[in-house]
Amino acid sequence: MIEHTLLNKDEHQLIIRPNPAMSWKLLKRIYITFALFILIIAVVLSMINLYLAIPFYGVEVIFLGYALYITALKSSYYEEIKIDKFNIIISFVNRKNIKKFNFVRQWAEFKFKPATNLAHSEISISKKGRILLIAEKVNEADRKKLFNLLKTF
């Protein structure tokens, strides 16, 4: 998913997010639904005096909550590209871990390597001989759309 924002006449901001598995609101609904379903099963089992299975249902709810929480954390990753008159700033943000790379706009060039049978397409920018790949976690259509958008700046 690519979001383009025009900050000023010569300033652009692009936010690149991988397609999230589920939104946080949907994750909470799924967790509450499963927890209520498991609670109903535990009540039914306690009515027929099968108390030994109830702790296992509690452990199952805890593991489900942990798995959904990890899913939400993994989908918080995004890349941010800010292009102004003189600079290109690329940030890789994973929760509080932020890696920033600065490029001089006149010396930097975005390159597109098309997909082959064995590899996905790549969008790259180079700095001092080192190649920095961007938009690695999005699909092919979004990568092509992003590169066409970057060519216009």
What are the defining features of this structure?
alpha+beta
Brief digest:
This protein has helices spanning about 25-45, 55-75, 140-150, and strands at about 1-5, 10-15, 75-85, 85-95, 95-105, 110-115, 120-125, 130-135. With about 150 residues, the chain is α+β, with helices and mostly antiparallel strands.
Written description of the protein model:
The protein has helices at residues 24-47, 54-74, 140-151; strands spanning 2-6, 12-16, 77-83, 87-94, 97-104, 110-113, 122-127, 130-134. The protein is an alpha+beta fold and 153 residues long. It has two domains: 2-18 and 77-151; 24-74, no CATH class. Strands 1-2-3-4-5 form a five-stranded antiparallel beta sheet, with helices on one face. A three-stranded antiparallel beta sheet has the order 6-7-8, covered by helices on one side. A hairpin with an 8-residue loop joins strand 6 and strand 7. 9% of the residues are buried. The mean pLDDT is 86.
Write the layout of secondary structure elements.
Elements: E1 2-6, E2 12-16, H1 24-47, H2 54-74, E3 77-83, E4 87-94, E5 97-104, E6 110-113, E7 122-127, E8 130-134, H3 140-151
Antiparallel strand pairs: 1-2, 2-3, 3-4, 4-5, 6-7, 7-8
Helix pairs in contact: 1-2
In angstroms, what is the radius of gyration?
A: 23 Å
| Proportion of residues in extended strands | 25-35%
Tally of helical runs: 3
- In quaternary terms, these chains amount to single chain
Number of domains: 2
Number of strands: 8
Q: Whole-Å distance between the termini? A: 19 Å
Instruction: Give the overall shape, derived from the CA principal axes.
Output: elongated
Unreliable residue stretches: none
* Fraction in helix: 25-40%
Report the mean per-residue pLDDT as an integer.
Answer: 86
**How many strands, which pairing sense, and closed or not: the largest β-sheet?**
5 strands, antiparallel
Topology order in helix (H) and strand (E) letters = EEHHEEEEEEH
Biggest sheet: strands side by side, in what order?
Answer: 1-2-3-4-5
From the helix content, strand content and strand pairing, which structural class follows? alpha+beta
